[in-house]
Amino acid sequence: MASRKEQKEAARERRLAEERARQQRAARARRMQMLGGVLVGAVVVIVALIAISSGGGGGGTTTVPKPNSPQARQAVATVDKLLAGIPQQGNTLGSPSAKVTVTEFGDLVCPICRDFALGAENQLIANDVRAGRVKLVYRGLETASATANNSMFVPGQVAARAAGEQNRAWYYIELFYHEQGDELQSYVTPAYLDGLAEQVPGLDYAKWTADRQSSALTAQVRADGAAAASAGYNSTPTIVVSGPKAQAPAIVGATSYASLESAIKSVS
Description:
Layout: H1 4-25, H2 45-53, H3 70-83, E1 88-89, E2 92-93, E3 100-106, H4 111-129, E4 134-140, H5 145-148, H6 153-164, H7 169-178, H8 190-199, H9 205-211, H10 215-231, E5 238-242, E6 251-252, H11 257-267
Parallel strand pairs: 3-4
Antiparallel strand pairs: 1-2, 2-4, 3-5, 5-6
Helix pairs in contact: 3-7, 4-11, 6-7, 6-10
């Protein structure tokens, strides 16, 4: 019987394989970065139980840390250091006058999106976005959520956009990725989303709670999915870089900062 870790890595590997095939058909295979290999073979139930109880299953938590826990405080400090002082409006991070726009179609439950967010994307924020050269837009596209959190995909995306009503969407998005749970577990609950909101610096929680009921925000999330489908995007993250000269071919997967810089240069 496969352990939870093996199931998780197998799910991730299947998604990576699908993305690689799409990239090859679109002549973008060179942009794909391979993520870790899949563990093979069967294990007995007792080994699986030991792995789970010892925390050896790896890769995230199933419940959000309490807002005042050491883990949550560390995540908030890291995110605040990254984002403090950068303009935000709705789901856009960065100066409105930035010449280049980088749009991420992502799923907050997707571990590949997390790898991108905490790697190349954070470098982009620290360097290009903070300097005013690039603005970053987040749009939702359901992929990993379909495994165990399908019913919470839209509420999760709306929760981030509700934070955006107070110019705090990127705090919410970053905290979600920092505290992301196991994609095979149904961990995204109203309590989980509330717990993240309680950690966002300066967020008016009562207003956020009211804004989450907005049908307009739900419509925006639905529109993201329709736009992705119209453009032929079906993997996350899909990154679109556009500027004064052109729009670069979409980048799929946890790409490198160097690849982002190359695309930005090509459209600037």
